[in-house]
Amino acid sequence: MDWGMKNRMSRIIQPDTGRAVMLALDHGYFLGPTHKLEVPKETIDPLLPYADTIMLTRGVLRNCVDPGSGANVVLRVSGGTSIVGPHLENEGITTSFEEAIKLNVAGVGISVFVGTEYERQTLLGLSELVNQGEKYGIPVLGITAVGKELEKRDDRYLALSCRICAELGAHIVKTYYCENFEKVTTSCPVPIVIAGGPKLETELDVFNMTYDAIEQGAVGVDMGRNIWQHEYPVAMIKAIRGIVHENLKPKEANELYNEIKQGKAA
Ligand code: R5P
């Protein structure tokens, strides 16, 4: 691996722990002003110090993130469809590699929609990004998207999608946690991070999912709504960091969360 690629990978997966806390803020690219991300800067600023990387689009990056903040960025470079359009899966590449380089990104991310009418174009899109990424030393995050079909999130489907991303050259894969998750991680030869999905009922549910994913081979999270849609987003991200980087158990993370929430811990 070339120096530039290694350097960027180490901005995403922290060399001291081998783990990653990515903060997903890209939802607006197909959902518009999602709940609690209506004014992105207000959501992003308090969380920035606790995210190893932020994942978002060029528009929100340029307009809502201070370039002097020191943020490491994984740029969402796919899109072109919306939640109200006919085919959410019909995505293309939205952002050129030159622009990603200009924005000094740590990596770029693209969704693939395996098993849909659009699998070929999205998988070839991933492949094209990898061609460019290898040329310029920029890691590519393959995202195994399910669109509106959340029920697709089982080990068989996710293992298939993750493995295809890795085969096509993705340097990291983002997927969902599922039952029998180890099947997904063991059959994917590149690091896996998990999305959080829609907001879960309790904090402990989020901590259990994060812990179980790490235990079963994920290197971390690329999580959004379960952090910033929560009433105490800073307490959430700090507790999640505790699991990812300090091997806290879910119960310990929950205690940390409660202490931060009650102002008993920083
Ligand atoms: C994925 O395609 C989305 O754009 C989000 O980045 C992803 O779902 C992670 O966010 P959340 O934890 O809210 O699911």
The gyration radius over C-alpha positions equals 17 Å
Q: By CATH's scheme, which homologous superfamily applies?
A: Aldolase class I
> What is the strand arrangement across the widest sheet?
1-2-3-6-7-8-9-10
Taken in chain order, the helices and strands follow as HEHHEHEEEHEHEHEHEHEHHH
C-alpha termini separation:
38 Å
Number of domains: 1
Helix content: 40-55%
Tell me what portion of residues adopts beta-strand conformation: 15-25%
Number of strands: 10
The quaternary structure here is: single chain
Bound molecules: ribose-5-phosphate
The CATH architecture would be: Alpha-Beta Barrel
* Poorly predicted segments: none
Quick gist of this model?
By secondary structure, the chain is of the alpha/beta class. The protein has helices at 3-12, 28-31, 40-47, 58-64, 97-102, 119-136, 155-167, 181-186, 203-215, 225-228, 233-246, 250-261, and strands spanning 20-24, 53-56, 73-76, 78-79, 92-93, 107-112, 140-144, 172-176, 192-195, 220-223. The longest helix has 18 residues, at 119-136.
Describe this structure in words.
The chain has about 270 residues and is of the alpha/beta class. The chain has one domain (about 5-195): TIM Barrel. Helices cover about 45% and strands about 15% of the residues. It is built from twelve helices and ten strands. It has helices at about 5-10, 30, 40-45, 60-65, 95-100, 120-135, 155-165, 180-185, 205-215, 225-230, 235-245, 250-260, and strands at about 20-25, 55, 75, 80, 90-95, 105-110, 140-145, 170-175, 190-195, 220-225. The strands form two sheets. Strands 1-2-3-6-7-8-9-10 form an eight-stranded parallel barrel, surrounded by six helices. The protein has a two-stranded antiparallel ribbon with strand order 4-5. Helix 9 links the parallel strand 9 (about 190-195) and strand 10 (about 220-225). Helix 9 packs parallel to helix 11 (about 235-245), helix 9 (about 205-215) packs antiparallel against helix 12 (about 250-260) and helix 11 runs antiparallel to helix 12 (about 250-260). It binds ribose-5-phosphate (R5P). The site of ribose-5-phosphate has 15 residues, from strand 10 and helix 10.
